[in-house]
Amino acid sequence: MKIKPCQSYVSMFLLISLIFLMSQTLVTDSLFDKIRVHVVNRFQNETLEIHCKSMDDDLGLHHIPANQEFNWHFRIAIFKKTLFFCDTWWRGGKASFHAFSAEEGFLKFSGDRDCMWRGNEDGMSLLDYHHQQYHLMHRWESS
User: Fold this and answer.
1) DSSP letter string over 20-38?
2) Which of 18, 30, 19, 21 is nearest to 107 (CA)?
3) Range of the domain at 24
4) CATH classification of the domain holding 85
5) What residues contact residue 30 under an 8 Å CB cut-off, 6+ apart?
6) What's the structural domain count of the chain?
7) What's the pLDDT band for 30 if we cut at 50, 70, 90?
8) Own/partner pairs for 44-50, CB < 8 Å, 24+ apart?
9) pTM above the 0.85 mark?
């Protein structure tokens, strides 16, 4: 049986595409595991309000009491860029930010399983997974 040139090109394209997808190790490592995003309220006596959503899911409005957390989990979409963005506020200000992004730089910084955010009087900070330190990413804006 003779393979037609068109079939050969399609097979080669599929093989190269598969190799490329599998070479994206950060995404491939996370692809089938659940990702969990945590937003922790580190205020002493303030409630942190938060509303998070992606293009597909609206997680609704949540009221996080002092020293408590709101978290959710999901799997990275294979052919879409998974992105969750949040609006947070308290009586001292507000902040909007990308709580999770499937981009390689974000995954390297935040780790590929648990993404840890912390809100306090300074603003919203993200945990640097490799150094185990929080970095202030978003200062509060006036309400």
Assistant:
1) HHHH-HHHHHHHSSPEEEE
2) 30
3) 5-139
4) 2.60.40.10
5) 76, 102, 107, 112, 113
6) 1
7) very low
8) 46/90, 46/91, 46/92, 47/90, 48/88, 48/89, 48/90, 48/119, 49/88, 49/89, 49/90, 50/86, 50/87, 50/88
9) no
